[in-house]
Specification:
Elements: H1 2-13, H2 23-35, H3 53-65
Length: about 100
């Protein structure tokens, strides 16, 4: 996340990341970098200060998923569920599941 913000700061200022002088300067740089991020628009308008870091990461991930194909949403191959065996839960009336009627 910070790499994206730093890249946005460097792109906006057109020079490498400057040294941070104080807290006010750090907040100003963060706002510059944050405003350059390509986040999905939310349904509810929020101030930048109200968004938590985990929400920012999720929005960035969702924005990146739009660029992928619809079949490759999570980026991992689909793993099928294991099939249950036919006799896994069945027991005979005698209580011994290994005894079968032979006719």
């Amino acid at each position: 996340m910070m790499r994206h913000i730093i890249n946005g700061i460097e792109k906006d200022l057109r020079k490498p990341m400057p040294a941070i002088r104080d807290e006010v300067h750090a907040i100003e740089l963060f706002k510059i970098g944050y405003n350059t991020l390509e986040l999905k628009p939310s349904k509810r308008k929020r101030r930048n200060a109200q968004i938590k870091l985990t929400t920012e990461l999720r929005l960035i991930r969702e924005g990146g998923q739009e660029q992928r194909s619809p079949d490759d949403i999570c980026g991992r191959p689909l793993r099928r569920r294991k099939r249950r065996t036919r006799h896994s839960n069945s027991t005979c009336a005698t209580g011994n599941s290994s005894v079968r009627d032979e006719e």
